[in-house]
Amino acid sequence: MTDQSQNSSEEKTNLHPRNLHRGRYDFKALIKTLPALREFVVQNERDELSINFTDPDAVKTLNKALLKLYYGVAQWDIAEGFLCPPIPGRADYIHYIADVLAEGNNGVVPTGNSVKVLDVGVGANCIYPLIGHKAYGWNFVGSEADYIAVAAAKKIVDDNNLAGAIDIRRQTSYANIFEGIIKPGEKFDITMCNPPFHSSSKEVKEKSSRKWKNLGQDKGTELNFGGRNNELWCEGGEPRFLNKMMSESKEFAKSCKWFSSLISQKTTLPGCYKSLDYLGAKEVKTINMSQGQKTNRILVWTFQDIA
Q1: What is catalyzed by this enzyme (predicted)?
Q2: What global pTM score does this model have?
Protein backbone atom coordinates (compact mmCIF):
# COMPACT_ATOMS: atom_id res chain seq x y z
CA MET A 1 0.00 0.00 0.00
CA THR A 2 3.04 2.23 -0.26
CA ASP A 3 1.78 4.60 -2.95
CA GLN A 4 -1.32 5.47 -0.94
CA SER A 5 0.49 5.92 2.35
CA GLN A 6 3.45 7.95 1.16
CA ASN A 7 3.04 11.65 1.93
CA SER A 8 -0.55 11.09 3.03
CA SER A 9 -0.71 14.59 4.48
CA GLU A 10 1.19 16.37 1.71
CA GLU A 11 0.48 17.54 -1.81
CA LYS A 12 1.06 14.61 -4.19
CA THR A 13 2.37 16.63 -7.12
CA ASN A 14 3.73 13.53 -8.85
CA LEU A 15 0.22 12.27 -9.54
CA HIS A 16 -1.58 13.04 -12.80
CA PRO A 17 -2.93 16.64 -12.94
CA ARG A 18 -6.54 15.38 -13.20
CA ASN A 19 -6.14 12.95 -10.31
CA LEU A 20 -8.58 13.89 -7.54
CA HIS A 21 -6.15 12.64 -4.87
CA ARG A 22 -3.25 15.05 -5.35
CA GLY A 23 -4.12 16.98 -2.21
CA ARG A 24 -4.22 15.93 1.42
CA TYR A 25 -6.84 13.44 2.44
CA ASP A 26 -9.81 15.39 3.78
CA PHE A 27 -10.48 13.07 6.71
CA LYS A 28 -13.31 15.24 8.04
CA ALA A 29 -15.18 14.94 4.74
CA LEU A 30 -14.30 11.26 4.47
CA ILE A 31 -15.62 10.54 7.98
CA LYS A 32 -18.79 12.47 7.21
CA THR A 33 -19.23 10.34 4.10
CA LEU A 34 -18.41 7.08 5.92
CA PRO A 35 -18.64 7.35 9.73
CA ALA A 36 -17.05 3.89 10.12
CA LEU A 37 -13.72 5.46 9.17
CA ARG A 38 -13.69 7.48 12.40
CA GLU A 39 -12.38 4.61 14.55
CA PHE A 40 -9.26 4.30 12.36
CA VAL A 41 -8.34 7.99 12.19
CA VAL A 42 -5.61 9.17 14.59
CA GLN A 43 -3.32 12.15 15.09
CA ASN A 44 0.07 11.54 13.51
CA GLU A 45 3.42 12.90 14.66
CA ARG A 46 2.62 16.20 12.94
CA ASP A 47 -0.68 16.50 14.82
CA GLU A 48 -2.53 15.88 11.56
CA LEU A 49 -5.35 13.42 10.93
CA SER A 50 -4.21 10.17 9.35
CA ILE A 51 -4.61 6.39 9.61
CA ASN A 52 -2.26 3.52 10.29
CA PHE A 53 -1.42 2.40 6.75
CA THR A 54 -0.02 -0.88 8.04
CA ASP A 55 -3.52 -1.87 9.25
CA PRO A 56 -5.42 -3.70 6.45
CA ASP A 57 -8.81 -2.85 7.99
CA ALA A 58 -7.93 0.84 8.15
CA VAL A 59 -6.74 0.82 4.54
CA LYS A 60 -9.88 -0.93 3.31
CA THR A 61 -12.16 1.44 5.20
CA LEU A 62 -10.28 4.43 3.78
CA ASN A 63 -10.80 2.99 0.31
CA LYS A 64 -14.52 2.65 0.97
CA ALA A 65 -14.70 6.28 2.01
CA LEU A 66 -12.68 7.49 -0.99
CA LEU A 67 -14.81 5.54 -3.44
CA LYS A 68 -18.01 6.81 -1.88
CA LEU A 69 -16.95 10.46 -1.61
CA TYR A 70 -15.22 10.90 -4.96
CA TYR A 71 -16.78 8.26 -7.21
CA GLY A 72 -20.27 7.75 -5.86
CA VAL A 73 -19.65 4.07 -5.11
CA ALA A 74 -21.91 3.52 -2.13
CA GLN A 75 -21.40 -0.25 -1.82
CA TRP A 76 -17.88 -1.63 -2.03
CA ASP A 77 -16.12 -4.42 -0.20
CA ILE A 78 -13.58 -7.14 -0.85
CA ALA A 79 -13.42 -10.63 0.55
CA GLU A 80 -10.61 -11.47 2.94
CA GLY A 81 -7.37 -12.25 1.17
CA PHE A 82 -8.09 -10.36 -2.04
CA LEU A 83 -6.07 -7.38 -3.23
CA CYS A 84 -7.03 -4.05 -1.64
CA PRO A 85 -5.95 -1.50 -4.25
CA PRO A 86 -4.44 1.94 -3.58
CA ILE A 87 -6.98 4.37 -5.02
CA PRO A 88 -4.65 7.25 -6.04
CA GLY A 89 -2.36 5.01 -8.09
CA ARG A 90 -5.26 3.21 -9.77
CA ALA A 91 -6.81 6.55 -10.72
CA ASP A 92 -3.51 7.64 -12.29
CA TYR A 93 -3.56 4.72 -14.74
CA ILE A 94 -7.07 5.72 -15.83
CA HIS A 95 -6.08 9.34 -16.42
CA TYR A 96 -2.96 8.45 -18.37
CA ILE A 97 -4.78 6.15 -20.76
CA ALA A 98 -7.35 8.94 -21.18
CA ASP A 99 -4.46 11.05 -22.47
CA VAL A 100 -3.57 8.28 -24.93
CA LEU A 101 -7.12 8.22 -26.26
CA ALA A 102 -7.08 12.01 -26.57
CA GLU A 103 -4.16 11.81 -29.01
CA GLY A 104 -6.44 10.26 -31.62
CA ASN A 105 -9.28 12.65 -30.82
CA ASN A 106 -7.80 16.07 -31.65
CA GLY A 107 -6.30 16.33 -28.18
CA VAL A 108 -9.66 16.02 -26.41
CA VAL A 109 -10.24 13.19 -23.94
CA PRO A 110 -13.20 11.18 -25.27
CA THR A 111 -15.98 10.66 -22.76
CA GLY A 112 -19.26 8.79 -22.59
CA ASN A 113 -20.39 5.24 -23.15
CA SER A 114 -19.17 5.13 -26.75
CA VAL A 115 -15.68 4.57 -25.32
CA LYS A 116 -15.12 0.92 -24.48
CA VAL A 117 -12.28 -0.32 -22.27
CA LEU A 118 -11.20 -3.87 -21.45
CA ASP A 119 -9.69 -4.37 -18.00
CA VAL A 120 -7.71 -7.62 -18.06
CA GLY A 121 -7.79 -9.17 -14.58
CA VAL A 122 -10.39 -6.89 -13.08
CA GLY A 123 -10.09 -8.64 -9.71
CA ALA A 124 -12.57 -8.81 -6.88
CA ASN A 125 -12.23 -5.07 -6.27
CA CYS A 126 -13.37 -3.94 -9.76
CA ILE A 127 -11.48 -0.72 -9.12
CA TYR A 128 -10.50 0.43 -12.61
CA PRO A 129 -14.02 0.21 -14.09
CA LEU A 130 -15.48 2.02 -11.08
CA ILE A 131 -13.05 4.93 -11.36
CA GLY A 132 -13.01 5.04 -15.17
CA HIS A 133 -16.78 5.07 -15.51
CA LYS A 134 -17.22 7.81 -12.92
CA ALA A 135 -14.35 9.95 -14.23
CA TYR A 136 -15.13 9.71 -17.93
CA GLY A 137 -18.39 7.83 -18.40
CA TRP A 138 -16.64 5.00 -20.24
CA ASN A 139 -18.09 1.51 -20.56
CA PHE A 140 -15.96 -1.37 -19.33
CA VAL A 141 -15.55 -5.09 -19.76
CA GLY A 142 -13.67 -6.66 -16.89
CA SER A 143 -12.16 -10.11 -17.43
CA GLU A 144 -11.21 -12.39 -14.56
CA ALA A 145 -10.20 -16.05 -14.22
CA ASP A 146 -10.86 -16.49 -10.49
CA TYR A 147 -14.51 -17.43 -10.10
CA ILE A 148 -14.69 -16.01 -6.56
CA ALA A 149 -13.33 -12.69 -7.80
CA VAL A 150 -15.84 -12.73 -10.67
CA ALA A 151 -18.71 -13.14 -8.21
CA ALA A 152 -17.35 -10.37 -5.98
CA ALA A 153 -16.88 -7.94 -8.87
CA LYS A 154 -20.37 -8.67 -10.19
CA LYS A 155 -21.81 -8.01 -6.75
CA ILE A 156 -20.13 -4.60 -6.62
CA VAL A 157 -21.50 -3.79 -10.08
CA ASP A 158 -25.02 -4.91 -9.19
CA ASP A 159 -25.04 -3.25 -5.75
CA ASN A 160 -24.19 0.08 -7.38
CA ASN A 161 -26.59 -0.30 -10.34
CA LEU A 162 -23.76 -0.27 -12.88
CA ALA A 163 -24.67 -3.36 -14.91
CA GLY A 164 -25.31 -1.20 -17.96
CA ALA A 165 -21.81 0.25 -17.82
CA ILE A 166 -19.60 -2.57 -16.50
CA ASP A 167 -19.69 -6.13 -17.82
CA ILE A 168 -17.75 -8.75 -15.83
CA ARG A 169 -16.71 -11.81 -17.86
CA ARG A 170 -15.14 -15.04 -16.66
CA GLN A 171 -11.93 -16.08 -18.40
CA THR A 172 -12.26 -19.86 -18.35
CA SER A 173 -8.71 -20.52 -19.55
CA TYR A 174 -5.64 -19.46 -17.58
CA ALA A 175 -3.68 -19.92 -20.82
CA ASN A 176 -5.53 -17.12 -22.61
CA ILE A 177 -5.80 -13.38 -22.09
CA PHE A 178 -7.97 -11.94 -24.86
CA GLU A 179 -9.18 -15.20 -26.42
CA GLY A 180 -12.57 -16.13 -24.96
CA ILE A 181 -13.20 -12.59 -23.71
CA ILE A 182 -13.31 -10.40 -26.81
CA LYS A 183 -16.35 -11.43 -28.81
CA PRO A 184 -16.41 -11.65 -32.64
CA GLY A 185 -16.88 -8.17 -34.08
CA GLU A 186 -16.43 -6.47 -30.71
CA LYS A 187 -14.31 -3.31 -30.66
CA PHE A 188 -12.37 -1.71 -27.81
CA ASP A 189 -10.67 1.66 -27.65
CA ILE A 190 -8.01 0.44 -25.22
CA THR A 191 -7.17 -2.47 -22.95
CA MET A 192 -5.51 -2.17 -19.54
CA CYS A 193 -3.94 -4.60 -17.12
CA ASN A 194 -2.25 -4.72 -13.73
CA PRO A 195 -0.40 -8.02 -14.17
CA PRO A 196 1.04 -10.29 -11.48
CA PHE A 197 4.54 -8.90 -11.01
CA HIS A 198 6.25 -11.74 -9.14
CA SER A 199 7.49 -15.12 -10.36
CA SER A 200 6.68 -17.21 -7.27
CA SER A 201 4.96 -17.14 -3.89
CA LYS A 202 8.43 -17.29 -2.30
CA GLU A 203 9.39 -14.04 -4.03
CA VAL A 204 6.18 -12.38 -2.81
CA LYS A 205 6.89 -13.39 0.80
CA GLU A 206 10.52 -12.29 0.66
CA LYS A 207 9.69 -8.85 -0.71
CA SER A 208 6.85 -8.42 1.76
CA SER A 209 9.16 -9.31 4.63
CA ARG A 210 11.71 -6.72 3.47
CA LYS A 211 8.95 -4.12 3.17
CA TRP A 212 7.80 -4.63 6.77
CA LYS A 213 11.39 -4.41 8.02
CA ASN A 214 11.84 -1.13 6.15
CA LEU A 215 8.69 0.16 7.85
CA GLY A 216 10.04 -0.88 11.24
CA GLN A 217 7.36 -3.53 11.66
CA ASP A 218 7.79 -7.20 12.56
CA LYS A 219 4.95 -8.82 10.65
CA GLY A 220 6.80 -11.48 8.71
CA THR A 221 5.20 -12.05 5.32
CA GLU A 222 1.82 -10.46 6.06
CA LEU A 223 0.54 -8.17 3.30
CA ASN A 224 -1.31 -5.02 4.30
CA PHE A 225 -2.78 -4.77 0.81
CA GLY A 226 -3.73 -8.46 0.56
CA GLY A 227 -3.75 -10.43 -2.65
CA ARG A 228 -4.35 -14.01 -3.72
CA ASN A 229 -1.66 -15.99 -5.54
CA ASN A 230 -3.02 -15.30 -9.04
CA GLU A 231 -3.10 -11.56 -8.28
CA LEU A 232 0.51 -11.43 -7.10
CA TRP A 233 2.52 -13.96 -9.06
CA CYS A 234 2.60 -16.28 -12.06
CA GLU A 235 5.17 -18.68 -13.43
CA GLY A 236 7.84 -16.67 -15.21
CA GLY A 237 6.69 -13.48 -13.54
CA GLU A 238 6.00 -10.21 -15.28
CA PRO A 239 8.16 -10.81 -18.41
CA ARG A 240 6.45 -14.07 -19.30
CA PHE A 241 2.96 -12.68 -18.69
CA LEU A 242 3.69 -9.62 -20.83
CA ASN A 243 5.14 -11.74 -23.61
CA LYS A 244 1.94 -13.79 -23.74
CA MET A 245 -0.19 -10.66 -23.71
CA MET A 246 1.77 -9.02 -26.51
CA SER A 247 1.70 -12.15 -28.68
CA GLU A 248 -2.03 -12.57 -28.24
CA SER A 249 -2.68 -8.86 -28.82
CA LYS A 250 -1.41 -9.30 -32.37
CA GLU A 251 -4.26 -11.75 -32.98
CA PHE A 252 -6.76 -9.09 -31.86
CA ALA A 253 -5.08 -6.18 -33.63
CA LYS A 254 -8.30 -5.17 -35.39
CA SER A 255 -10.40 -5.46 -32.23
CA CYS A 256 -8.51 -2.87 -30.13
CA LYS A 257 -7.05 0.51 -31.05
CA TRP A 258 -4.60 0.40 -28.15
CA PHE A 259 -3.27 -2.19 -25.73
CA SER A 260 -1.66 -1.27 -22.43
CA SER A 261 -0.26 -2.77 -19.25
CA LEU A 262 1.46 -1.63 -16.09
CA ILE A 263 5.14 -2.53 -15.91
CA SER A 264 6.65 -2.84 -12.44
CA GLN A 265 10.26 -3.61 -13.30
CA LYS A 266 12.20 -1.29 -15.61
CA THR A 267 14.27 -4.29 -16.70
CA THR A 268 11.15 -5.80 -18.30
CA LEU A 269 10.91 -3.04 -20.89
CA PRO A 270 13.77 -3.93 -23.31
CA GLY A 271 12.32 -7.39 -23.92
CA CYS A 272 8.88 -5.88 -24.48
CA TYR A 273 10.22 -3.41 -27.03
CA LYS A 274 11.98 -6.21 -28.87
CA SER A 275 8.85 -8.39 -28.92
CA LEU A 276 6.60 -5.58 -30.11
CA ASP A 277 9.03 -4.71 -32.88
CA TYR A 278 9.05 -8.34 -33.98
CA LEU A 279 5.23 -8.45 -33.87
CA GLY A 280 4.98 -5.35 -36.04
CA ALA A 281 3.49 -2.84 -33.62
CA LYS A 282 3.08 0.50 -35.39
CA GLU A 283 3.45 2.65 -32.30
CA VAL A 284 4.86 1.94 -28.84
CA LYS A 285 5.06 4.35 -25.93
CA THR A 286 6.07 4.21 -22.30
CA ILE A 287 4.44 6.44 -19.70
CA ASN A 288 6.14 6.88 -16.35
CA MET A 289 3.96 6.95 -13.24
CA SER A 290 5.23 7.78 -9.78
CA GLN A 291 3.45 7.61 -6.43
CA GLY A 292 5.53 8.35 -3.38
CA GLN A 293 8.78 6.41 -3.64
CA LYS A 294 7.38 3.86 -6.05
CA THR A 295 7.74 4.12 -9.83
CA ASN A 296 5.63 2.20 -12.32
CA ARG A 297 5.39 2.44 -16.07
CA ILE A 298 2.53 2.03 -18.51
CA LEU A 299 3.47 0.29 -21.73
CA VAL A 300 1.12 1.18 -24.58
CA TRP A 301 1.11 -0.22 -28.12
CA THR A 302 -1.04 -0.46 -31.24
CA PHE A 303 -1.09 -2.30 -34.52
CA GLN A 304 -3.39 0.27 -36.13
CA ASP A 305 -2.74 3.62 -37.78
CA ILE A 306 -3.96 6.15 -35.22
CA ALA A 307 -5.02 9.44 -36.78
Answers
A1: adenosine(1618) in 23S rRNA + S-adenosyl-L-methionine = N(6)-methyladenosine(1618) in 23S rRNA + S-adenosyl-L-homocysteine + H(+)
A2: 0.85
